[in-house]
Design a protein that fits this description.
This protein is of the alpha+beta class. The protein has four helices and eight strands, in the order ββααβββαβαββ. It has a single domain, classed as Gcn5-related N-acetyltransferase (GNAT) (Aminopeptidase, 3-Layer(aba) Sandwich), CATH 3.40.630. Strand 1 and strand 2 form a beta hairpin. The longest helix has 17 residues.
């Protein structure tokens, strides 16, 4: 599967071999990781991707995407679909960046790229959840047009209906 390009990022869909390298935390010469990558959130997401791949085969396009800066090629975080769309066409997305990459608009840019991927692959709705305390993530979700649609305790839910591609 091909990389998805945004203005400043490459959304690189990882495969099983890359997932194992990321989980091992030891880059090979072909891996360009910024200091701090992978962080705990990446390891959780990649672990889920790998488990789903082992159980059900290749998850792409509904898997984990490594976020690389186009300017230097360094991996600075990840963004993922939590699996293929459900029966209603809804797909969940989650994302995270190393601390040095936060506050620069990368998360919103990556999320716009994932929304476009979801639309192009037939999803009808994108959802995301975040903590009521995660102001930066709430701002990112609003910035890409995902309004808050509900909550369960400390978890807030955001949704975006997609028009067919």
């Amino acid at each position: 599967m091909a990389d998805t390009m945004t203005n400043r990022l490459v959304l690189h869909p990882i495969d099983e071999i890359e997932a194992e390298r990321i989980l091992g935390g030891v880059p090979t010469p072909v891996d360009d990781w910024a200091p701090g990558y992978p962080f705990e959130g990446d390891l959780e997401a990649v672990g889920g991707f790998l488990a789903a791949t082992v159980a059900g085969g290749d998850q792409r396009p509904w898997g984990y995407y490594q976020l690389r800066r186009r300017e230097d090629g360094l991996a600075i975080g990840g963004i993922r679909f939590a699996g293929p769309p459900d029966a209603s066409g809804t797909v969940e997305v989650g994302y995270g960046l190393i601390p040095d990459a936060r506050g620069k608009g990368y998360a919103a840019e990556a999320l716009r790229g994932m929304i476009a991927l979801a639309r192009a692959n037939g999803a009808l709705r994108v959802i995301a959840e975040t903590s009521s305390k995660n102001i930066a993530s709430q701002r990112t979700l609003r910035d890409v047009g995902m309004p808050r649609t509900g909550s369960a305790g400390d978890t807030w839910r955001y949704e975006l209906a997609l028009t067919p591609a």
